[in-house]
Request: fold
Amino acid sequence: MVTSEKTPAADAIHQEPMGGSVAGRLNWLRAGVLGANDGIVSTAALVLGFAGATTARGPILLAGVVGLLAGAMSMAVGEFVSVSTQRDTERAVLEQERRELVEMPEQELAELAGIYRDKGLDADLAHQVAVQLTAHDALGAHAEAELGIDPNELTNPSHAALASFIAFVVGAAVPLLGVLLSPRAWIAWITVLAVGAALAVTGWLSARLGQAPAGRAIARNVIGGVLAMAVTYGLGALVGGWIG
Reply:
């Protein structure tokens, strides 16, 4: 029977946290929740501003749809530009790391071993870990330890833009449905209730993802959204009175 014996270096490598992809997914979820929250608040504030000026459903709904499209496109373009810049930076530092591994391999190995010593490994074990990781995938080992980048999972601008667009649209749909499905006399009140419930959900989700107390996150989210709607409703009523 063939048996295998794990070396201390192998144990140390095995115990290294492998949560990069999990952290990435959590970041995507947080971005999605924030995008949806932005869609809820901005569109709700817009339709409530028009509701303050008129009770006609058509103009309110038109304002909401235009706000949804403008906001979603703005979110998508902004996210695409931002993530493209981040990806360019990641590629630049990876290229620099690649050159350093070719030009000064011993210094890079010593630097990697130093990182593992700082994490609590003794000098000999840190050196073994650095040697084995470098032999397996030098760029990947150095990029993750030194830069916090996985060379095989760089940020994708197109995916980020699409995710932001969809998240905003989903959030903005809440106040639009409130306007569309409410009796004409109750558009403002039902929209506020629907938006308040949606903001409570996104506040709870953001707290769960950040492992923070849910109560404060929900209260902050709902109060902020209600204040935004109240201000725009008041301004809409004021402007509508002037125009009327």
Confidence is low (pLDDT under 50) at residues 1-20. Residues 29-243 form one domain. Residues 28 and 160 are 8 Å apart (CA to CA). The two ends are 91 Å apart (CA to CA).
